[in-house]
Amino acid sequence: MSEEKLSFQADVSKVLDIVVNSLYSHNEIFLRELISNAADACDKLRYAALTHPGLAKGRSFQIDLIPNKEKHELTVQDNGIGMDKEDLIHHLGTIAHSGSAEFIRNLTGDSQKDINLIGQFGVGFYSAFMVADHVTVLTKKAGDDHGWRWESNGKGTFTLNEDDKAPDGTAVILHLKKGFEEYTDPIRLRTIIRQYSDHISIPIVLDVKSSKETINTASALWMRPKADITEEQYRDFYRHLTHVFDDPWMTVHYKAEGVIEYTGLLFIPGAPPVNLFQPDQKETLNLYVNKVFISNEVEELLPHFLRFVRGVIDTTELPLNVSREMLQHTPVLTKIKKGIVKRLLTELKKRAQDAKDYETFWNNFGIVFKEGLYEDREHEKEIAELCRFHSTQSNELVSFAEYVARMPKEQKNIYYLTGDDLSVLRNNPQLEGFTARGIEVLLLTDPIDEFWPQVYMNYDGKPIKSVTHPDMDIHDIKIIEETSGEPMDASLQKVLIEKVKELLKGEITDVTVTDRLHKSPVALVAGAGQMSIHLERLMKMHGQPQAFASHRILELNPRHPVIKKLAQAVFDKKEPAKVEDAVWVLYDQARSIEGEPLKDPAGFARRINAFLENGL
To answer: β-pairing, 204-208 with 63-68?
Structure first.
């Protein structure tokens, strides 16, 4: 077969330049990445051999590390599942397979932060070009009759041709650049392996001139006693598992005994993964049966609101030849899932006692953790106790328990307000009546905040209610701030309401006066039983404007001087054109405060300019 020359499917020069420059001061990381890939290949073949025993041919899995000082070469070889032509093009010919464009967009210019992106975007193999000016991959897929040779200098193209001398598995041969001869030094290689890959459960054999030495512990870390494992070993295993370079925020290592027995080694990352919000993201925990890798796409092991957790579950309760279909229906996984959730919530409760430390977790994962209030009725109380929120009375995050402890005696409900921006929410006029009464309001800015209060409707017997609902009754709570004068009399209110309804017909469904406003003249709210204006806006953004149109109510502050003057002008039937302009300006003001776009920006500008001209 003639040799083929193909182009990488990405902006090669840019991506590879980023990889090399971002990782330059950590260039030994390339070896960890290649070792991890080799270990994964062995795990995949071991699993495939459960249903097709002939594939492994009785081989004993290992990873060979072969330095050659004379040739300036380092070879990392495994006897795992190997690759065929399609695999080579798909895995080695598509740089940043999990999203090269997004990889580039997420770069910050900060070397330490950019390092974390390398593994997350699937470019770990290409870290080899930090130390090598030429890479050759010899590979033969288990069950195939012939192998392949893949070669590249990392400049934009690679060659691919058949090679019947390719070994079973994969051999990655690095021709080292000048100045990187240290990676042919056995002492240096031993140090790197023990630092980064000692936890690998497959033996890593250093082969120097036919002298072979296993240089890693080669035992499944999660099966070892906790007392024998250091924080550094936990950290290195986490990095091997996740292919990122941050430190785990929390490590949970335990053995569950009883009706269902399993071992769990779980990590909460120190930073959110880039695929946290990707709907097709399937990778969760690595499932093992008696230390044999089964799958890392077992969605039944974790609830969706804990999808950021990474780690390993090893059980003896499943057969080694368990199928994907069986995994989807077995009650064993359901019981393991319940145990995982219970353990994680217990450990999070302990960490939450340190508010500053817990804030790190919440800032990273609170946006998805709150989904548990909507999804998990069984654990909703424990989840609610772990939730944290911004509020009108504190710059620190507040829990439900802290909120309830600060409530005035007359207050019966927990109040909240939703929106897109925290600073905008703090100035929302709908908070004025609550602030005047010393009532704390939770400020919620995540999309899920529109949904969970419809399911988790009370905490500790206190109903959870939005301040935007027009029937919100807070009259029984004493006002502690002075108000701006007396309200206008009933006759003026009546004529003003009728006029505003007439002028804004088709825009709103009702006009009312309210005592919830203290400093602002107007506010816009949704009708009783209707979705909030913020939720309607979210629905429109997702292409559903007609199905989710809410009924708008314009609330007037009867104590505000502008509203009083406007009512008097309507009552006296003076300057109807100016009255109409004023009503539209107030309505546009209310829309703007709610984050709604102006329907007629030019008309709004004209009216404002006219009022400015008269005022000046």
So the answer is: parallel
Q: Find the angle CA(14)-CA(19)-CA(25) to the nearest 5 degrees.
A: 135
Helix (H, G, I), strand (E, B) or coil at 186: helix
Which has the closest alpha carbon to 397: 412, 405, 409, 386? Answer: 386
In a 10 Å sphere around its CB, with 0-12 CB exposed, 13-18 middle and 19+ buried, how is residue 455 labelled? exposed
Predicted pLDDT at 289? 83
pTM: 0.71
Say how many C-beta atoms besides its own lie within 10 A of residue 527's C-beta.
16
For 485, list phi and psi in degrees, rounded to 5.
85, 180
* Dihedral sign (CA 103, 105, 109, 113): negative
Strand 286-289 relative to strand 310-315, pairing: parallel
The 3-class SS string of 189-216 reads HHHHHHHHCCCCCCCEEEEECCEEEECC
Cα gap 482→478, rounded to integer Å: 11
pLDDT in tens, 436-464: 888 999 999 998 998 899 899 999 999 99
Above 80 in pLDDT, residue 101?
no
Residues pairing with 464 in the sheet: 414
Q: Determine the pLDDT at residue 361.
A: 97
Backbone angles phi, psi at 182, to 5 degrees: -60, -25
Token pair in block for residue 578: 């100016």
**DSSP 3-state assignment of 459?**
strand
Q: How far apart are alpha carbons 126 and 575 in whole angstroms? A: 74
Using a pLDDT cut of 90, give the percent of the chain over it: 44
Q: Cβ–Cβ contacts within 10 Å for residue 249, how many?
A: 18
Q: Which letter, b or e, does each residue of 30-44 get, where b requires 16 or more Cβ atoms within 10 Å of its Cβ?
A: bbbbbbbbbbbbbbe
- Give the residue among 553, 588, 586 at the shortest CA–CA distance from 567: 586
Rounded to 5 degrees, φ, ψ at 403 are -60, -50
pLDDT band at 294 (very low <50, low <70, confident <90, very high): confident
Q: At CA 98, angle to CA 93 and CA 100, rounded to 5?
A: 70
Tokens of 446: 């995540």
